[in-house]
Amino acid sequence: MIMQLNLFEKFILLALDQKKGKFLIDALSLNYGIAGAILLELSEMNKISIQNKKIIVTDKMLTKISIVDDCIKLINNSKKPRRAKYWINKIGNKSSGFKKLILNDLYNEKIIRINRSTYIWGLFTFYKYPLINTKLVDEIKVKLKRIVLESKKTDLESLLLLSLMNSCKLTRVLFTNRKEHRAANKKIKELTKSIEISEAVSQTLKEIQSAVLVATTSTFVGAS
To answer: What is the CATH number of the domain that holds 84?
Structure first.
């Protein structure tokens, strides 16, 4: 039985090297991925929807999940409705702070350790986050792989997580073989089109997935 975690918590765990505790994607792609995961979480909770290609808050009631509530307030307080691309960048720029909150929660749940190292007389500090509960992450990986490779029945959250990983070039964590990885990416795209989900969620997923893909691709091109 997989522990109940938020979408953004699962995304961060999948983005971590289990033993080394380092992230497997660059910092900007990680931040945009976190932003996408938060927006998809809001969509899954029926807090936001897409109207005229703009994200709007459909339920202002707060959840007592600080990250979720901060983003509900952020979107709701905007002077005008804005597209997913805007919010991916806006929330992505705040995601370093959100990342710390998520990692601290995972530490408090005894899912990860937080190892702190300092260099050059304490001028530079580095953190690593090796997993304690590797079984939890392995269960998530096995479930996702079976959905893609064995056509097992999927659920909305797994679909959202797969689409996000695909946008952030993180599917290689699940599919290390090149041929398998190529086939998996194709299958994930098919799943996001064919699964029976509401039109509102489908549209939100499409907009957010596209926005994350544009942001991470731009990051890659800029770095190159």
So the answer is: 1.10.3630.10
DSSP sequence for 50-77: EETTEEEES-----S-HHHHHHHHHHHT
CA 148 to chain centre: 18
Tens digits of residue pLDDT in 57-97: 999 999 999 999 999 999 999 999 998 889 988 999 998 89
Looking at residue 153, the DSSP 8-state letter turns out to be: P
Strand 124-128 to strand 115-119: parallel, antiparallel, or no bridges (unpaired)? Answer: antiparallel
Percent of the chain's residues with pLDDT above 90:
45
Spatial distance between the Cα atoms of 166 and 109, rounded to a whole number of angstroms: 27
What residues make up the domain containing 126? 7-218
Smallest CA-to-CA distance from 211 within 56, 49, 87, 72 is with 87
- Residue 223 in domain: no
